[in-house]
Amino acid sequence: MTEVETSPFAVVLGTAQDGGIPHAGCQKDCCESARREPSQVRLPACLGLVDPRSQQRWLLDCTPEFPRQLDRLNQISDPAWGLSGVFLTHAHIGHYTGLIHLGREVMGTRSLPVYAMPRMAQFLAHHEPWKQLVDQDHIRLHHLRADEAVPLADGLEITPLVVPHRDEISETVAFMIQGPDRSVLHLPDIDDWAAWDRSLPDLLPNLDLAWVDGTFFDATELPGGRMASIPHPFLTDSMARFQSLPAELRQKIHFTHLNHSNPAARPDSAERLQVLDAGFGLAEEMAGLEL
Ligand SMILES: [Zn+2]
Ligand SMILES: [Zn+2]
Predict the structure, then answer these.
(1) What number of CA atoms fall less than 13 Å from residue 240's CA on the CB side?
(2) What does the pLDDT look like over 28-71, one tens digit per residue?
(3) DSSP 24
């Protein structure tokens, strides 16, 4: 085996907002073109971690497209390695409802570790259909604590960072993954950069890549009123906020969790080029990074 094959790595298994692209009920060109052209399909934001040394694999978030994302993981690593655990950011539908496939109707996993913050874990333990997964020991809940690293394998650990978000059901966290050589951040949802008790620019020097919330491009995207109920920093605002960073830090920021209405999600759009020209990146489906 070569060095490349033995290093742990992260792989982007999805780059869209919770509903994916194409988006249910959208007959506009953003989604019709993705129905015609499979290369334009984007699955909900999800990161896979693979450690060939210990033959382990983990998922960060368990989306409604879990079956297809597991297929993707199986294309690039041995399906026999199974899953060693699932880490959940929060209780919005794009981030945990794929757990439904772990029950006896589908995979029937045994004691699969599901790592969640206390409110998130409480929610799963006490509400059907998730409660049944717990009661029947298809999943076993492990409580995360903010800022406390969970060791995964030799030189590989993951740390939840609490972020401000619409926390109706659960807390919301981002995950920082530290590998033997590189570190990355998975931050698919945040309401407002300014409301965070940390700062992305402070974290960036110690990161190699940060996949962050780029849900909406600007305020014109959804018909009046709806955007206020789904707060996210606009991609244009995030770019303005981080544009004064040195280029080597800026290029570590890759926007993900793009809504179907976000024109930067479309290949060759002017908005996509605007993001890239400003020195930022856009998350790519199946992009990998050695850790
Ligand atoms: Zn989301
Ligand atoms: Zn659409």
Answers:
(1) 7
(2) 999 999 999 999 999 999 999 999 999 999 999 999 999 999 99
(3) T
How much is the pLDDT for 229? Answer: 65
How many Å lie between the centroid of ligand 1 and the Cα of residue 110?
Answer: 27
- Whether the ω angle into residue 129 lies within 30 degrees of 0, i.e. cis, is yes
Amino acid at position 7, single letter: S
State the ligand closest to the CA atom of 21.
2
Closest-CA residue to 9 (of 42, 58, 70): 58
Whether the predicted model's global pTM rises above the 0.70 cut: yes
Residue type, 46: C
> Strands 253-256, 9-14: parallel, antiparallel or unpaired by DSSP?
unpaired
Contact yes or no for 218/261 (Cβ under 8 A)? no
Distance 190 CA to ligand 1 centre (A): 9
Chain centre distance of CA 186 = 6
User: Domains of the chain, with CATH numbers?
Assistant: 3-284 (3.60.15.10)
Cα of 65 vs centre of ligand 1, distance in Å, is 13
- Provide φ and ψ at 31, rounded to 5°: -100, -35
Phi/psi of residue 85, nearest 5 degrees: 170, 160
pLDDT (tens digit per residue) in 142-153: 999 999 999 999
List the beta bridge partners of residue 185.
Answer: 176, 210
Is residue 283 a contact partner of residue 255, using CB atoms and an 8 Å limit? yes
